[in-house]
Write a structure and sequence with these properties.
The complex is a heterodimer of chains A (192) and B (209). With 192 residues, chain A is mainly alpha-helical. Chain A is 68% helix and 0% strand. In chain A, helix 4 (60-77) packs across helix 5. The radius of gyration of chain A is 18 Å and the shape is elongated. In chain B, helix 2 crosses helix 3 (34-51), helix 6 runs parallel beside helix 10 and helix 8 runs parallel beside helix 10. Chain B has helices at residues 3-14, 20-32, 34-51, 64-75, 78-83, 85-103, 106-113, 124-145, 151-177, 182-208. The interface between A and B is large, with 49 and 44 residues.
């Protein structure tokens, strides 16, 4: 793994998609307590952070909460950011951790399962629109069972490898792989 | 390799995770089997579609005001804290502890006896999220039933919540400077717990009214 916490085989989508501008300056100013600079970082990255939160949770309201939580956490941890990795990668990893923590907490708090473990339940849940509506990939991802969605987003959308996902989620790499295959199977079924 | 085996390994094949010998065998099978080739094509299409999803999605509302409010609540002067760490840290801990003592004697017990019961099993962040989630739910419940409470009760609840929020801010300030301090984490969790208890009592009162 490198300083961003990614192994060398992973695609660092946070970096690939982000133009490097005066970000270091914004980070340095925010570290010194400059709220305008921190807002600049927020404005630059909120779309990326929210997209990750939304896809991981499948719930816009929860995604908003987690996006806010991620940026509050960033503020608290900015002092620890030393620039060993690029800021977008650091932020992305921090957001993943915030979301995973939120998901674990939600699972314990509500102790409820929506849909989920069998294909029939998933199909029923994903076909609630008008007849003839074709589900798009975003909707289908949102309706995936939580474990499968989490791994699918991290692997197929965000480009993390199973070893990294295992390290982040606490799953075994084999379980991560099984969840990914399950997610793809479910998605193909409902998108067909 | 037959079709069942081929489909078993197809995901790993397109992810480049198959060992060479098996990869070669599957490649040969795919060249000979149109059905499995179609499976491969569909799988690759799905993965390609996922990789091509937009990297950014903007939330429907501006989240910055909420973030700013929370951050400023923690702020006071982070830069000053970093420069004058020992004195400020002691001040923050002392202030937090003082407010926590005002809020409820149960905190003293928590501080003496250790963390909240569920803290031992879960790490700080998980437990914090649980408290925050419970707080949010109770706040929503209270808001829905606020009309059932007398104005005096509402004022008392709000005053107590303000005291607790002040304590939370101070402790978070100290934690920002000393992120993994277990004593600060415990104080913060104990404060959350008091907040949740207060809200729970208020909701209970509203339900009885």
């Amino acid at each position: 793994m490198d300083a961003s916490g990614l192994c060398s085989g992973c695609t660092d989508r946070a970096e690939v998609d982000h133009p490097v501008m005066a970000e270091n300056d914004l980070v340095a100013r925010a570290q010194a307590g400059d709220m305008d600079a921190f807002e600049g970082l927020y404005r630059t990255h909120v779309g990326r952070v929210y997209a990750l939160c939304l896809r991981m949770t499948g719930n816009p309201s929860e995604a908003e909460d987690l996006t806010q939580e991620a940026f509050v956490r960033v503020w608290g941890k900015l002092g620890a950011f030393r620039g060993e990795s690029a800021f977008p990668s650091w932020l992305h990893r921090l957001t993943v951790n915030v979301v995973l923590t939120g998901l674990r907490s939600r699972a314990r708090r509500r102790a409820r399962v929506v849909g989920t473990d069998d294909l029939t339940a998933y199909e029923r849940q994903t076909r609630t629109g008008q007849p003839g509506d074709r589900m798009d990939l975003e909707q289908a991802i949102a309706a995936l069972p939580e474990g499968a969605r989490r791994v699918f987003v991290l692997h197929d959308v965000e480009g993390y490898c199973h070893e990294d996902i295992a390290a982040m989620t606490g799953l075994a790499a084999g379980t991560s792989k099984a969840q990914l295959h399950r997610a793809r199977k479910l998605l193909r079924k409902v998108l067909a | 390799m037959n079709c069942d085996e081929a489909r078993t390994y197809l995901n790993d094949y397109i992810d480049g995770l198959l060992e060479k010998r098996r990869e070669k065998a599957l490649g040969e099978h795919l060249r000979a089997c149109a059905e499995c080739r179609e499976e491969e094509r569909a799988l690759r299409a799905l993965v390609g579609q996922a990789r091509g999803l937009p990297a950014t999605i903007m939330p429907d509302r501006d989240l910055w005001p909420g973030i700013k409010a929370r951050v400023e609540g923690n702020l006071v002067d982070i830069a000053a804290v970093r420069q004058r760490r020992p004195a400020m840290l002691h001040y923050a801990v002392a202030a937090a502890a003082a407010i926590v003592l005002v809020v409820g004697a149960v905190v003293v017990w928590l501080l003496e006896d250790g963390a909240p019961a569920d803290y031992a099993e879960n790490n700080f962040t998980h437990t914090e999220q649980e408290y925050l989630g419970a707080k949010e739910e109770l706040l929503n419940a209270l808001k829905a039933q606020e009309a059932s409470l007398s104005p005096e009760t509402v004022a008392t609840v709000e005053a107590n919540l303000a005291v607790i929020e002040g304590a939370v801010r101070d402790i978070r300030l100290a934690l920002a400077d000393d992120p993994d301090n277990p004593h600060l984490e415990r104080i913060l969790l104990a404060t959350y717990r008091n907040e949740v208890r207060l809200l729970h009592q208020a909701v209970h009162l509203a339900n009885e009214s």
